[in-house]
UniProtKB/TrEMBL annotation:
Record's keyword annotation contains Iron: no
InterPro entries reported for this sequence: Haem_d1_sf, Host-pathogen_enzymatic-act, WD40/YVTN_repeat-like_dom_sf
Protein name in UniProt: YncE family protein
The species this protein was found in: Pseudothauera nasutitermitis
TM helices/strands, residue ranges: none
Keyword Cell membrane attributed: no
Alphabetic keyword roster: Signal
Signal peptide as annotated in the record: 1-28
Length: 388
């Protein structure tokens, strides 16, 4: 038998095993006891599932029946990554897919049902069929670099944003300088590499109506506006606070970014000041700074159905390693804090259902033994919060 035929048979066997596993799990859930328990879990307005090691980002399926989370088992190069598909209500695991490289960021094209997985340490993007869990390929974005000792490293990937209308993927890289990669989702090829004049290029948001990509970072110009067709920066926004594109001269680090396409506003979390900055896109100016009661501000999403800004803060930093974090819901009309939800220990990433009525949060356990909540082999979590 040829090697090609053996590969095809192995792939078919893997696919069959995946389907069989899903069927077995479904059968288990349909037993009277399991069905009753699942129903109780599904009915709860807030549900937390502590079941994951090394959890990072979360994404929600187009029909809001499934949630995907990315995890890793360790930072060593030999460690792989995993994508877990969960029932959106009970948070029970329905399927687990191992990716060839460590999995951190998630971007879901709901039109093609394709997951794009950011392999941060390897500077690449893995492609996973969200229906079957089959890994379709890996796109290498960053070039390999070797240091004086012969150790290989790559510029890191961070945020993965999907443009469903044009079937494109945008990936940020928070280096010095920062990078933005643009990938054609139809051919799975890299079309543009944009080098930023700033540093720590991290967050991103896309406006399909105007066909503009916005990227947040540190340095003199904290927000970049990019024409993705041309693959170039066409405008930049600045707070006017920073003096140089260096760690010493950058007052802000706008780590994540969300967009209100109707109101033409950008919301960015500043990790340095624990404030949400609101930018008016037309003028490029800051119209509001919203203080958050907590340190290490991290993720942000905008909920147009409820006109709310939602943020996470980890609650701990190197200078204050023992705190815990929370989720903050902000009225996007008045910029007043509406609600704070404590989620010990360290809330990380956010995702909303398409109707804007359910929020998902990944929460990381403390890793340092000096934290009072540290437990050996503690697991990370996914939390579902009904917003109705």
């Amino acid at each position: 038998m040829s090697r090609h035929h053996r590969f095809k048979l192995n792939a078919l066997a893997l696919a069959a095993a995946t389907v069989l596993l899903g069927a077995c799990q479904t059968a288990a859930l349909q037993s009277p006891t399991a069905t009753s328990a699942a129903a109780a879990l599904s009915a709860s307005p807030v549900l937390r599932q502590d079941a994951f090691q090394g959890i990072y980002e979360v994404a929600v399926s187009a029909d809001a029946t499934a949630v995907f989370v990315a995890t890793i088992t360790g930072f060593d190069p030999q460690n792989g990554g995993f994508i877990h598909r969960l029932d959106a209500r009970s948070l029970q695991t329905l399927q687990t897919t191992q990716t060839p490289r460590r999995s951190f960021a998630l971007g879901l094209n709901r039109s093609t049902n394709t997951l794009y997985v950011g392999n941060t340490m390897e500077g690449s993007l893995s492609i996973v069929d969200a229906s079957s869990g089959v890994v379709k390929g890996v796109i290498q974005l960053a070039e390999a670099k070797q240091d004086a000792e012969g150790k290989t490293s790559y510029a890191h990937t961070r945020k993965v944003i999907v443009d469903e209308k044009h079937n494109r993927v945008f990936v940020t890289s928070p280096g010095q300088p920062g990078l933005i990669w643009i990938v054609d989702g139809a051919t799975n090829t890299l079309t543009h590499t944009i080098t930023s004049e700033g540093i720590w290029t991290a967050g991103a948001a896309y406006d399909a109506g105007s066909n503009r990509l916005y990227v947040s970072q540190g340095g003199v110009h904290e927000i970049l506006e990019i024409d993705p067709d041309a693959g170039k920066v066409v405008r930049s926004f600045s707070t006017g606070d920073s003096t140089a594109n260096t760690s010493e001269g950058a007052k802000h680090f706008f780590i994540n970014l969300a967009i209100d396409t109707k109101g033409q506003r950008l919301f960015s979390t500043d990790a340095n000041t624990s404030q949400v900055y609101v930018f008016d896109i037309a003028s490029g100016s800051v119209v509001k700074q919203i203080p958050i009661d907590g340190i290490s501000l991290l993720d942000v999403v905008y909920n147009p159905q409820r006109d709310e800004i939602v943020t996470t803060h980890r609650g701990a930093a190197r200078s204050a390693p023992t705190g815990t974090g929370a989720v903050t819901l902000i009225d996007a009309a008045t910029y007043a804090v509406k609600r704070t939800i404590d989620l010990p220990m360290h809330p990380n990433s956010l995702a909303l259902t398409p109707d804007g009525q359910t929020l998902y949060v990944t929460v990381k356990a403390p890793h340092g033994d000096k934290h009072p909540g540290f437990r050996k082999d503690a697991l990370d979590s996914v939390v579902r919060i009904d917003l109705r």
